[in-house]
Design goal:
The chain has 362 residues and is α/β, with parallel strands linked by helices. Helices cover 32% and strands 13% of the residues. The termini are close together.
Length: 362
């Protein structure tokens, strides 16, 4: 997660106790897949319940440090509790967030050195946060690609001069603890690195941002993972590395989602849909919610500026748009593009309606 939010004072969250008493998301009866239609936001319908199988191999793709906990902190815990293994892949170090860098450094005009130092700090915060889930540093990989630049890297294509971060002033990862420091900020290199991590971790499920997300890094992360799976599948024996499921999570939306922290109850199904994904809810125990909150609080640089968003995700469930293996082959990298006019489910009777204007990300 990265954004442009109002700076608020860092403090412990007084809402935690109340949230831990929230009831778990109730299981619902199966429903048909969503129609590709659009309408005004409507109350979310009940979702199917996600069940974590034993000994699951899970790869969590996070555009920035803290997205792993916002989107999948509970899922990570349940996977490990069921005897599975988790690997977390951070595409960026979250170094391109001026407001947070100003708060962290006290510099009103941060330098490239400040941004690089901030990226190192966010990496350290992420590793400590993951310790709350019992995910060790050996199971965490950073690629060090440019925060705020993923969508532009995709747009430019594979054979252009490397993108230069306006924050770190680098066109390749400036950090010592990345998978490949000689990589350049071009789409070909990022696709290669993601495909390499999928091959190495051999996941049953991949958790990644949904293309519905308003943040360009998030929706571009989905595009790059799909492109990496296509690339991997085209290699000899690569089809065996395609996961059984993609689980997509939403962080930034413009339709009043997630609900404000003071809104009681579990996280509802988002109003927007992306075919062929189908929304599932993962119920969390009070202890799992508590651990997720503690992990989020470890991201001190973000808690200082994005407290409200953090609080909104401290609920008794997590929501995932699930894409089954048979549907993965039909996904097209770059479709939908970042900032698409995406449909929403509601009382349209399956008929098209006027699409909403895409909004700007945080």
């Amino acid at each position: 997660m990265n954004g442009r939010g109002t700076v608020v004072a860092r403090r412990r969250w007084g809402y935690v106790g109340a949230l831990l008493l929230a009831t778990a998301a109730a299981a619902s009866t199966p429903r048909p897949a969503h129609s590709a239609v659009a309408s005004a936001p409507q109350p979310a319908s009940p979702t199917d319940t996600l069940v974590v199988p034993p000994r699951l191999r899970l790869l969590v793709v996070a555009p920035h440090p803290d997205d792993e906990s916002l989107g999948a902190g509970g899922l990570i815990q349940q996977t490990i509790a069921a005897g599975g293994r988790v690997h977390v892949l951070f595409l960026t170090n979250g170094d391109g967030y001026p407001e947070a860098v100003e708060v962290a450094t006290g510099h009103r005009e941060p330098t490239a050195t400040d941004y690089r130092g901030f990226g190192e700090l966010r990496r350290a915060e992420a590793l400590v946060a993951l310790e709350h889930y019992r995910v060790l540093p050996l199971s965490v990989t950073f690629l060090g690609f440019p925060d705020g630049g993923l969508a532009e890297i995709w747009r430019r294509g594979p054979r252009v001069p490397a993108y230069e971060s306006p924050y770190t002033r680098e066109d390749n990862p400036p950090y010592p603890h990345v998978l490949e420091s000689t990589a350049h900020y071009v789409s070909r290199d990022l696709i290669h690195l993601i495909a390499r991590m999928v091959a190495l971790s051999d996941p049953d499920w991949i958790v990644l941002p949904t293309p519905l997300d308003n943040h360009p890094d998030h929706c571009a992360a989905f595009t790059f993972v799909v492109a990496a799976l296509k690339s991997l599948g085209a290699e000899p024996g690569g089809a065996s590395k395609i996961p059984d499921r993609l689980l997509t999570y939403l962080v930034h939306s413009s339709l009043g989602w997630p609900p404000a922290p003071q809104t009681p109850g579990p996280l509802p199904e988002p109003n927007k849909v992306f075919a062929p994904a189908r929304w599932y809810s993962l119920p969390l125990t009070p202890d799992q919610v508590k651990t997720k909150v503690e992990a989020l609080e470890t991201h001190h640089t973000q808690a200082a500026v994005m407290e409200v968003l953090f609080r909104s995700f401290a609920r008794s469930n997590e929501i995932f748009g699930v894409i089954e293996r048979d549907e993965i082959a039909h996904l097209v990298p770059g479709t939908p593009p970042c900032g698409p006019e995406l449909p929403s489910h509601a009382s349209t009777g399956g008929h098209p309606a006027a699409v909403e204007e895409p909004s700007q990300p945080h």
